[in-house]
Design a protein that fits this description.
Chain lengths: 543, 331, 357, 562
């Protein structure tokens, strides 16, 4: 019999042996797995994903985060500032209502030694329009007619509409990246590996090793002559994560130096209490709001009991009842802050009309006021409201967020909310075909300016397609886009916000804060967390 | 011959997946649904041709496959063959380590359970097997991470290698994507140690799940063959009980066991989406769930076709091994 | 001359004929222990599922009560025995209501796959020929099919925008069903092929019975003797797949129904911040229920198979002598319920499904 | 001669689902060295349990008392098997006592070579080098008569015939040349011709190697052929023990007398066949035959290109109304295939087969169905010929319901009761389940079912071969009575000439798919012309040691002649 247990023991020994060997290796590896590259090195972790390096083929933040570090932009905003100033360019201004002239300094070089001239600029914009990739951002160049090269260092952009104040901002964002015409293809997307191999970079950093959506290694670019100060760290490694809890554990255990973008509220709340890491916050560009479909919402235009006044009263009652503080604290634990206007705090022209107009006047909910409004308009309560949200596109906490909103509306007895959710792709198709009377939506800015928070939403033909028609607001928006004088433009933007707040096409309620978690020995994160919403590695330093 | 079934199996699967994918939206809406107004979205969808009737798109896709062009993925613009190789390598490595654990734990303990039938050891091993099988892998993975990396700090939390190790492996000209082999090629033992350390927890989590299945399988089948006449005959000739289990009952019991083990291997090679997500092990399983959500038709079809080939090939190999074990099939 | 004395066998009491009770009295020693443990756990699960509305202190989507909101991630306390989740729900209520959802999914998934799988297996096994080969190829193909894709498709097609309880339950159930049908198909087909060669089926054919009559009156009832075992194994896989779908974000929407996999997914980030109770209890619930059901399934499998069944060691040379041995065919082989069992039937093999690993 | 094994007051009982059952009660037996003790009895008599106790091979659920004193090979020491520890028991098995099993095909491990399995026995007891072990294996294979042992030692079990497999099982028992061999129904699974060879081999073991043999069997012919002394067991007790000759000549216990009377003695049946022939009406020969086969061929299709297997190659025979044709042949002779072809269960591929005036070659089920009510079929295995989930009444009522003679089983119950009475089964059995009946009772019910529609033709495929001798005798009597009463024509298929002789008017002998001999019982058994028939007849053992000894000589002469 003993031989039987011997066999049993032999297999137990085998299992123990396997794990012991692994542990032994782990022991010696937990130290320095590899000799450190010369000079300082920082590792950043994120859960974003890159679509492609080629600026003509991407329109998402994951790709922009990498492109900002390695490609030159004609114009840019400095740390902690919102005004657009030349970056690669020497000067840039309207030389005529429809001509925007940009001059480049002499002798600019790509990291691979090729000359960086006006030809590169024209090439970059022409290919954006020529390729018009389904995932690309070519639609932002709606106002660009043609690009003309005057000489090696001067480029003139011929625009369709006059005095377009938005165009300079677009040059700082997605389609504004300048690429090397000797490496990139003119009429097709260039694969990432070719770009890295050709070292076609001219930003603060270049890419030395590229493992798609797993690990990217950046090296300081000595040729960089842009707006930002010289990069403080030689090597920056960017590590990609699938699960936010793994990102949190790595930054907490010191496996990585910086964690930026999409840690869950619980993670951040826990890390705030942990003295091994610093939690750094900055103004966020992301906003969350509820959209009302004017046709199908309660008392909507296309419903049997259509009545604009009652419909407005319903929207106003909802605006009265939403408790933004409770949402921000209980669900998002401070990673989102209450938002009382259409333009997020931190941008020029942002005011807070909803504070005085709805709720108790100081931002808190007011059940009685809502009840008054509804009875005044003759609305029988409780109002039946179908509210739709997406459970996967806007992060994991949407479900808890909307369960709380449903609770807030229903606890006053004024509403019975029928909460629904659908998988994202179907959600996007249904919302534009009038399936949902009221639904959740979010917004990531294309460029950090108030225009990007009104133009897409409140023109007659708009992104929401929720049948909100206000000619006056429509004209104001078009006017502000071409108003040269900043003060006059700001006044226009404030007026637009007042008017839409009265109509309540959407009810904004949360603004996302930018959060970065860094080791205690890392500085510069607070400097780059600004209204530009670009996390620039050049500002980071360690030790 | 089951080998010939590879073609119809793959064909059925790809068609099924093709129709289902096309009927649930398109990649453009998935990526830019929250950014572009409806008309621009419709314009781009029309330009990309996703609004054409499914039959037309299907015939076009078959044309591409026929010419060996598996196409490039729609959401990250990479050739399908490349993603199959890079993520397939990760899944292969995870499956390899998991199978080591599964074989080392599953088979011997199955034999012991069969030997000590209906005694204490048998009952405890059977409950252990059911627990391995019953615990969701992301739950057990989580507990393993908490105990071994967060509290004890012996092992890394997740991922396939630490940043430093990965960088060294990136420099290799002939990088295979199998980190263990790459680590050996770098010649730096610390890198190999790092890669192995990263593999321990996922291997145990996934390995135990499969070990639970192997253990119950071996136990039932060996007990089955233990009560056959030829084992009784051997017993009547004085062969020891232990040798009866290990030799006389084990080999004939292997025939039914091999077929199920083959299937388990195929499923492991198909990628374990839950384990891969829990441990940051970007393999076929994880990427399939990502591409599915992004409605990347081309990528999903490529992965499913590969899965089908893997399952069919494994069945084929299992037939050969069964023939090796069972002389009746061979002659 | 050993004449055939007329012996009146005891009419089998009804109590004996109930499937599980009969096995329970038959089992012995450790197998009885496992069967009892399994039955206790499964019984508990079913009871909790049925009486969830009464037992659970709060509704599954209740965020506040008279004294105000529960607050998120509160540790276990007097009024919240299992604490509260990140969304502010009461964990204990979610676990109890979750049992109800799990039971719905099991019942629907198994019923949908049971009929289709058994019928296909019966017809394919009985008639054989090209129909049989085609169905076998399709079944093998299904193994490689990502049931995750089906979960997404079903989540959209069925709920069609609504995410109520039934939409979610059916979506999960159907995506599990597709993988279960081949399992039922394979086992019933093997049983049909085996039974088709039995003498009583051939005698029915000789008598001129129609194919339909032979299939349903003779073959089907005998082929479905192994179903309780498959039913239990599929029930446990249904729960594990539901948890898998929940983990990947395709579970049922929290305000529509409580679902363990979904809660577990939400609780992952909690655990790494030291909040253990939100993950521990749903996880434990899944493990205990699957353990219970599988124990019952495994014990049923052992008891149905005489080779695996242990018997009470008889007291020293006791027992009535010759009376029963007159029945030729000997005392060793016969026993109530006939020889039956799985001796030669295909031993039920295990296949994991994609979403479970 | 010293005693090899001495069983004193042995008692064995088992735990079954229906409580404790005593299989062996107070049995005492002795076997001398070089002597064959046959233990004979019907199933359930406890003979196999007694044998297994000698090797301690009883399952855990068994408890034993009394003593089994086994002396070792050299006769130097003795040990009581029952009280041995597992380790000591192992040492005894193979060296002092070895066992030969009934089913040769399942007693050999399919996945190991025969050589390896023999060496296993050696390695379990002696530390012998593989080279010597292999040589010993080859030598022992040669001794048991396996041709070309050097190569065959590396072959696998499925590459041997039934007879050869049994020789290998015996070789495995002999390899350590034990003092005692326990042979449990060694020849039951074999064909008659092969059985004779195996009995010769066992005789050599006794004579050349001086071993004691305990022979377990229910076949009195085998006992007469090989046994020195006989012990008859019934319901767990030894009712009589005596040397072979006196037991057969003058049995004392009633049970033994009844057993010997029930054993069919080949040749005794021809008288009744002649008397039946006499009563035939004059124009009987001209009546249209019920079944007429001319050049009948049946080929089973091979799979994926493997050639088909020809089961029946060109057979001609005729069955006239009311006549019983006995179809005799060994396994693989095609007899069952012909039976199934007549019943429409197997496709006819060549020649012609007319059943009740209907051509079966290219038959379509729809046309043939109405004819089915005029054909009855009785299957071989009583255990599986009834649907376990239906009661006997429902099964017997099946033909009546199918052919519309009754709307449902309940309506047919009156007719069913009559049928049960006809086959001497009490009406009350109708409410029982098949597993609650004995083998014999089930076979009677099967007869009742086949006669429900008063068929003109009844096909019986080895109806009694799975039954005990005494039960078989009564079922055959019943069959004859029913045949006289209903007057159906019948094809009686069997491998046992003695059984066929009792019932058949004419006998047809099949060998590998072709008809080698046909004629009345007297012609075929009295003066067989074909050599195969002669060998078949000669190798069939008769329950009379004296007569059996002469027949053995005659068989040896035949073997030299061929």
């Amino acid at each position: 019999m003993t031989s039987a247990s011997k066999n049993g023991r032999r297999s137990l020994v085998a299992v123990a042996g396997f794990s012991a060997a692994a542990l032994a290796f782990a022991g010696c590896s937990a130290g320095q797995p590899a000799d450190e590259a010369s000079g300082s090195s920082i590792t950043v972790g994120t859960t974003d994903k890159v679509t492609t390096l080629d600026p003509a083929g991407s329109y998402d933040n994951g790709s922009l985060a990498v492109q900002t570090q390695v490609f030159p932009y004609l114009l840019n905003t400095d740390y902690q500032s919102t005004d657009v100033v030349p970056d690669l360019a020497e000067s840039a201004e309207f030389t005529s209502p429809t001509e925007y002239t940009v001059t480049l300094p002499e002798g600019l070089k790509w990291a691979n030694g090729n000359d960086l001239t006006a030809d590169d600029v024209k090439f970059s914009f022409d290919r954006q329009i020529a390729i018009a990739d389904p995932n690309g951002a070519s639609s932002l160049l709606y106002n660009l007619d043609s690009t003309e090269v005057v000489d090696d260092t001067t480029v003139v952009f011929h625009l369709k509409a006059e005095n377009d104040q938005v165009f300079p901002l677009i040059l700082t964002s997605f389609p504004g990246a300048i690429v090397d015409d000797e490496v990139f293809a003119a009429d097709a997307l260039t694969p990432d590996d070719e770009i890295v191999a050709a070292n076609a970079f001219a930003g603060p950093y270049t890419i030395t090793s590229y493992d798609f959506n797993t690990l990217i290694s950046f090296k300081k670019n000595p040729e960089y002559k842009g707006l930002l100060a010289e990069a403080k760290t030689d090597t920056v490694n960017l590590k990609y994560y699938a699960e936010s809890s793994n990102l949190k554990l790595d930054v907490q255990e010191g496996g990585i130096d910086v964690a930026y973008r999409s840690l869950s509220a619980t993670d951040i709340d826990d890390l705030k209490g942990n003295d091994k890491v610093n939690v750094v916050e900055g103004p966020g560009g992301e906003i969350r709001y509820i959209v009302f479909n004017f046709d199908t919402q309660p008392y909507g235009a296309k419903t049997p009991e259509a009545d604009p006044a009652k419909a407005l009263a319903v929207r106003q009652a909802v605006a009265d009842l939403i408790d933004r503080d409770e949402l921000a604290d209980q669900v998002y634990k401070g990673t989102y802050t209450p938002l009382y206007s259409y333009v997020p705090a931190g941008l020029a022209g942002a005011i807070e009309p909803l504070v005085e107009m709805y709720g108790d006047g100081s931002g808190a909910p007011d059940a009685d006021k809502a009840a008054e409004r509804l009875t005044a308009a003759g609305v029988t309560t409780p109002v039946e409201l179908n509210l739709q949200y997406s459970n996967d596109h806007y992060g994991p906490s949407s479900a808890d967020e909307y369960a709380l909103i449903k609770d807030q509306l229903e606890s006053t007895g004024l509403f019975t909310v029928n909460l629904q959710t659908t998988e994202w792709v179907q959600y996007s198709e249904d919302r534009t075909s009038d399936v949902y009377p009221a639904y959740q939506l979010g917004w990531f800015p294309d460029y950090s300016d108030a225009d990007n928070y009104v133009t897409p939403f409140f023109l007659i033909e708009n992104f929401l397609s929720n049948h909100y028609v206000n000619q006056e607001v429509n004209d104001l928006i078009i006017e502000q886009a071409s108003t040269l004088d900043p003060a006059a433009r700001t006044a226009l933007i404030e007026e637009i916000q007042q008017k839409v707040a009265a109509d309540l096409s959407t009810v904004p309620y949360l603004q996302g804060a930018q959060v970065a978690v860094t080791g205690t020995d890392v500085e510069g994160a607070d400097q780059t967390l600004d209204a530009s919403f670009k996390f620039r590695y050049a500002a980071l330093s360690k030790g | 011959m089951r080998a010939l079934l590879i073609i119809p199996t793959v064909f059925i699967l790809v068609t099924l997946v093709f129709v289902l994918m096309r009927s649930t939206g398109d990649p453009i809406t998935a990526k830019l649904g929250g950014q572009l107004p409806a008309d621009q979205l419709a314009e781009r969808i029309h330009a990309a041709g996703y609004d054409r009737p499914i039959i037309v798109q299907y015939l076009e896709y078959l044309g591409q496959i026929a010419t060996g062009n598996f196409g490039t993925t729609l959401t990250d613009n990479r050739p399908v063959t490349e993603i199959l190789v890079t993520y397939g390598a990760a899944t292969l490595e995870l499956a390899f380590y998991a199978l080591i654990v599964a074989f080392v734990v599953g088979i011997p303990f199955g034999l012991i359970a069969a030997y000590f039938r209906d005694k204490g050891q048998d009952a405890s091993l059977r409950v252990f097997a059911i627990l391995c099988y019953a615990t969701p892998v992301f739950f057990s993975g989580l507990l393993l991470k908490l105990v071994f990396s967060v509290w004890l700090g012996w092992l890394p939390v997740s991922g396939r290698a630490s940043v430093g190790a990965q960088l060294q492996m990136e420099l290799l000209p002939n990088k295979t994507g199998l980190y263990t082999i790459d680590a050996i090629m770098t010649g730096n033992p610390a890198v190999l140690g790092d890669v192995l350390a990263h593999a321990v927890l996922p291997a145990i989590a996934l390995g135990l799940l499969t070990a639970g299945v192997f253990l119950r399988l071996v136990r039932t089948n060996v007990i089955g063959t233990l009560s056959t006449d030829y084992v009784d005959a051997a017993r009547s000739r004085g062969v020891s009980e232990y040798r009866l289990v290990r030799k006389h009952a084990y080999r004939p019991a292997l025939i039914p066991i091999i077929t199920v083990i083959g299937l388990q291997i195929a499923l492991l090679l198909g990628g374990a989406v839950l384990t891969e997500t829990t441990f940051e092990w970007k393999g076929l399983g994880f990427m399939l769930s990502e591409y599915l959500q992004a409605r990347d038709f081309v990528a999903v079809q490529g992965i499913v076709a590969l899965l089908a080939v893997i399952v069919a090939l494994t069945n084929f190999i299992v037939d050969i091994i069964a023939a090796l074990i069972d002389p009746r099939v061979r002659y | 001359m050993s004449t055939d004395t007329v012996i009146q066998p005891p009419r089998r009491r009804l109590r004996d004929r109930l499937p599980v009770v009969h096995q329970l009295r038959q089992s012995v020693g450790l197998q009885r222990g496992m069967l009892v443990a399994g039955l206790v756990l499964t019984g508990l699960f079913v009871l909790v599922a049925i009486f969830a509305p009464l037992i659970a202190p709060f509704g599954f989507a209740q965020l506040r009560d008279l004294e105000g909101p529960f607050g998120s991630q509160q540790p276990p306390s007097a009024d919240h025995l299992f604490g509260t989740t990140v969304g502010g729900y009461d964990v204990l209520s979610r676990v109890l209501w979750g049992a109800q959802t799990a039971l719905y999914v099991i019942v629907i998934a198994v019923i949908l796959s049971l009929f289709a799988g058994v019928l296909l297996g019966l017809v394919s096994g009985y008639f054989g020929g090209w129909l049989d080969r085609v169905l076998v190829v399709v079944c093998d193909a299904i193994y490689a099919f990502p049931s995750l894709l089906l979960a997404i498709v079903m989540a959209i097609v069925i709920s069609g925008g609504q995410s109520n309880l039934w939409g979610g339950v059916f979506a999960a159930a159907i995506s599990i069903t597709v993988v279960f049908i081949p399992q039922y198909f394979r086992v019933i087909r093997a049983e049909t092929v085996r039974i088709k060669a039995e003498a009583y089926v051939e005698s029915a054919k000789v008598l001129g019975a129609s194919n339909g009559r032979v299939m349903f009156r003779h073959v089907l009832r005998n082929a479905t003797r192994t179903l309780p075992l498959i039913f239990t194994l599929n029930a446990s896989e249904a729960i594990l797949t539901l948890a898998g779908l929940g983990f990947l974000g395709f579970g049922i929407e929290p305000t529509a129904a409580a679902e363990w996999g979904y809660d577990l997914n939400k609780a992952l980030s909690d655990v790494s911040s030291g909040i253990w109770w939100t993950a521990l209890y749903p996880g434990l619930a899944i493990v205990l229920v699957v353990l219970g059901i599988t124990l019952v399934g495994e014990s049923l499998n052992d008891l149905a198979d005489p080779r695996l069944r242990g018997r009470r060691r008889v007291a020293q040379a006791s027992g009535t002598v010759a009376e029963t041995s007159v029945v030729p065919g000997g005392t060793l082989t016969a026993g109530p319920g006939g020889l039956g069992g799985l001796e030669d039937g295909e031993s039920f093999d295990e296949h994991g499904i994609g979403v479970r690993s | 001669m010293s005693t090899v094994v001495n069983i004193e007051r042995l008692g064995v009982s088992f735990a079954t689902d229906a409580g404790a059952v005593k299989a062996v009660d107070d049995v005492s037996l002795k076997v001398e060295r070089g002597e064959v003790l046959a233990i004979v009895g019907e199933s359930g008599s406890g003979k196999t349990v007694t044998a297994k106790t000698i090797l301690g091979l009883l399952p855990e659920t068994a408890t034993t008392n009394g003593a089994v004193i086994l002396s070792n090979k050299a006769g130097t020491s003795e040990s009581d098997v029952i009280s041995l520890s597992k380790k000591q028991l192992r040492a005894v098995r193979g060296t002092d006592v070895a066992m030969v099993f009934q089913e040769p095909s399942s007693a050999l491990n399919p996945v190991y070579t025969v050589g390896w399995q023999i060496i296993e026995g050696l390695r379990a007891h002696t530390s012998i080098s593989t080279k010597d072990a292999r040589a010993k294996a080859i030598e022992i294979l040669g001794r048991v008569g396996i041709p070309d042992p050097e190569h065959r030692v590396d072959h696998y079990p499925h590459q041997f015939s039934g007879g050869q497999k049994q020789r290998i099982v015996i070789a495995m028992a002999l390899v350590l040349d034990p003092g005692l061999i326990v042979a449990d129904e060694p020849t039951t699974a074999l064909d008659v011709t092969v059985q004779a060879e195996i009995l010769d081999l066992l005789r050599r073991c006794r004579d050349e190697f001086g071993m004691g043999i305990v022979l377990i069997t229910h076949n009195m012919g085998v006992v007469a052929d090989l046994a020195d002394r006989v012990a008859v067991m019934y319901q767990g007790k030894v009712v009589e023990e005596a040397d072979a000759k006196t037991l057969f000549a003058s049995p004392k216990a009633d049970y033994t007398k009844a057993l010997l009377a029930a054993v069919p003695y080949v040749g005794t049946g021809t008288a009744s066949a002649i008397e039946r022939a006499a009563k035939r009406p004059a124009d009987w020969l001209e009546q249209a035959p019920v079944v007429e086969a001319s050049g009948l061929e049946i080929v089973y299709p091979g799979r994926f290109g493997k050639p088909g297997f020809q089961a029946v190659g060109g057979v001609d025979f005729v069955i006239r109304p009311g006549e019983v044709l006995g179809l005799v042949g060994e396994s693989g002779s095609g007899k069952t295939t012909i039976g199934r072809a007549i019943a429409g269960l197997t496709k006819v591929t060549g020649g012609s087969l007319r059943v009740l005036g209907h051509e079966m070659n290219g038959v379509r089920e729809r046309e043939f169905r109405p004819l089915r009510s005029r054909i009855g079929f009785v299957f071989q295995d009583p255990a599986s010929s009834f649907n376990p989930l239906l009661t006997i009444a429902e099964c017997v009522a099946e033909p009546l319901v199918i052919h519309g003679r009754a709307s449902n089983p309940a309506a047919a119950r009156k007719r069913v009761d009559e049928l049960l009475e006809a086959v001497q089964l009490p009406k009350a059995y109708g409410d029982r389940y098949p597993h609650e009946l004995s083998g014999g009772q089930r076979q009677r019910a099967s007869l009742a079912r086949s006669l429900a529609l008063e068929p003109e033709l009844l096909i019986a495929d080895e109806p009694t071969s799975a039954l005990d001798v005494s039960v078989q005798a009564r079922v055959l009597e019943l069959f004859a009575e029913l045949q006289r009463e209903f007057g159906f024509a019948s094809l009686f298929i069997s491998h046992d000439l003695a059984v066929v002789d009792i019932l058949a008017d004419r006998i047809a002998v099949l060998y590998r798919g072709s008809l080698v001999e046909e004629g009345t019982g007297a012609e075929v058994l009295g003066a067989p012309k074909d050599p195969y028939t002669q060998r078949l007849l000669a190798s069939l053992p008769v329950p009379d040691p004296v007569a059996q000894a002469e027949r053995r000589e005659e068989l040896r002469r035949l073997r030299e002649a061929v």
